[in-house]
Design a protein that fits this description.
Length: about 300
């Protein structure tokens, strides 16, 4: 169904996904399936000093013929399983910038067994929205639903129901039209927010209103809000002195995106990770549980930035 030229979402996503931080270390086979070469990528991802020293020793023995390929594989497998501590990688708005996403995952030393959580807006504005979705599916990533993801889902459902193409084909329509069925299913599954009780953390695209129970939060605000004014008005507009996160008093730490104007935001109980990669800024991740910040520069500005500022 289309109202006022825009499709209506038939089946909204579940309110919440709970994530328990009980990840397991990867097997050697999983690493082989992920990496593109036999030796160099393994060495790249073994970051701990003791692991690197032992790995270098194994490599020298392998190259000198003192270790067979099977023995080398077994030793590397044991070394990785002993020293690896799987992590959660929380990533800000990607907006179709798949090259920067791959660079960020390498910089975060991503390995199978790690969990990636996107903060929404996987798509739109950037060059490779479809590739970002496919990468997210292939790596079994979680993501919350952003406002641009929401529009793509609406058009996907409209196309499925036989809606005619709009006179002016929007970017969201064009993205929806080229997605495969599995891509659409993945996008439709994205929830409004994700909870991880073991890390006392919440993940949402735009934000929450402090003092309102999670299950009573407004989904549209969770995808669009940026500011809360002194009179309590919640708005998607950028008011420089009134970010919503300044009012969030926990107890959970909220990780959010959507607000490229403010860039990296770090409050006592809230962390904003949208650093404007699609506008030529950076793509930023927070690695949990250490809360280590990692980022990469955009290769170029893909979209002209024209946000209005309010006082």
């Amino acid at each position: 169904m289309i109202v006022n030229g825009r499709p209506i979402l038939a089946n909204p996503p579940r309110t919440v996904i709970s994530v328990q931080y009980n990840l397991t270390a990867p097997t050697f086979r999983e690493i082989m399936n992920y990496t593109s070469s036999y030796l160099s990528d393994i060495e790249l991802h073994c970051t701990e000093k003791v692991c690197n020293k032992r790995l270098l020793s194994y490599r020298l023995q392998f190259l000198s013929g003192n270790l067979t390929k099977t023995s080398y594989s077994n030793k590397v497998t044991q070394l990785i399983e002993t020293n690896r501590h799987p992590k959660i990688i929380v990533i800000g708005d990607v907006h179709g910038c798949v090259d920067e996403l791959r660079s960020l995952l390498r910089r975060c030393n991503y390995l199978p067994g790690d969990l990636i959580i996107f903060l929404g807006d996987l798509v739109s504005k950037g060059p490779h929205s479809k590739s970002v979705i496919q990468l997210a599916r292939n790596l079994n990533c979680l993501s919350v639903r952003g406002n641009h993801d929401f529009e793509v889902v609406r058009w996907s459902q409209a196309i499925k129901n036989g809606a005619e193409a709009p006179i002016f084909q929007t970017e969201h329509y064009c993205i929806a039209k080229e997605l495969k069925e599995k891509d659409v299913e993945y996008m439709e599954s994205l929830p409004w927010y994700i909870s991880c009780p073991s890390l006392n953390s919440l993940f949402v695209h735009a934000g929450f209103v402090s003092g309102v129970r999670l299950r009573r939060q407004n989904p549209r605000l969770m995808m669009n809000m940026r500011s809360i004014l002194p009179d309590g008005t919640v708005t998607s507009k950028f008011f420089e002195n009134w970010p919503w996160a300044r009012l969030w008093d926990g107890p959970q730490t909220v990780f959010f995106g959507h607000d490229a104007d403010r860039g990296l935001q770090q409050y006592e109980n809230a962390v904003g990770l949208d650093t404007g990669v699609v506008y030529g800024g950076r793509l930023t991740a927070c690695v949990l549980p250490e809360k280590k910040m990692v980022s990469v520069s955009a290769r170029k500005a893909y979209f002209m930035y024209r946000r209005k500022r309010y006082t």
